[in-house]
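= Paired protein data =
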Amino acid sequence: MIFPTTYELTLALGILAMLCWGCWASTFKLAGPKWRFELFYFDFAFGALVAALLVAFTFGSMGDELSFADNVLIAGKRQIAFALAAGAVFNLANMLLLAGVSIAGLSVAFPLSLGLAAAIGIISKQIGSTVGNVPFVYGSAALLLVGVIVAAMLASSTKPVAAPVVAGRNANLKSSSSGGSLKGVIVSVVSGILLAAASPLVSLARDEGSELGLGAYALLVFMAVGIFLSTLVFNLYFINLPVHGEALELGAYLKGGLFQHLAGILGGLLWCGGTIANFVAASPAGAALVPAAITGALGQGGMVLSALLGLLIWRELKGASGRASILSVLMLLLLIGGIGLMALYPATPTAAAPAAPTRTP
């Protein structure tokens, strides 16, 4: 397996993770307003799995370190099961995140979900730990939580996005139902809680104190398998009992255009690229080691980038009130402040297990 050998390369991987995680959801917007997230997600899961396998059998099989195949052979069954479970839990959270995006937009759903997940992760790692600057730790979590509250207020100040009646077949849009803003907030919050729940499963799969643990590349592959398989299960629910819009037929997927399918695959590729960059950046030791607080903060920067893309590129607040513009600026400042404090305090591993790599948006 190939890992960075210098501090600069590890830091560059952290930045790459931030860029990929911040941009992947824009491919859903790129697919167009007529393409439902349920249909987009089939291609996303396929793209993530293909990318994970390609990375594992190239970079994961080169170099002097233990190869991906060897890591799989010696890995424990429990660790593999934890990785598959992490992929499934993350996948449900990610699907709900896209549901939130389809209702409230990138600028609301990402801060709500990822901001909440980050705050929960910070607090859970600090509880029971004697390491870390407590004012910085809880100050970071407090700023993120206030940013989440402001994001919820922003959702109530903007009009929910209308959903296509039948994606790829009927161009008419279903008018937004009352309570759409509240629905967008709820599904994004549930997404954030599930994202936080996936992080301990990732730690258990890595099992860094044991030779049976999964390395970065093997962990990515088994998570991608969990994502792909669980998509086939979860999407049966979302298609028949949708979060937003009317029920779909499976045949609607085949009515999508080539560009829409490629957008979904590209989304999976970008997510996978950000995830392996984050996993690898969390693995080096010695001179190549970047403090976990910095790599974690870079990963969380992806939610700010997503929100900025929603505001500046996709113009999600176009026509909104001046109050919405003020709330969006305040939200971004709070999130950036929370992430900044996160990068300043020392890593805070718990007594039970090493700190997990940054969550994977």
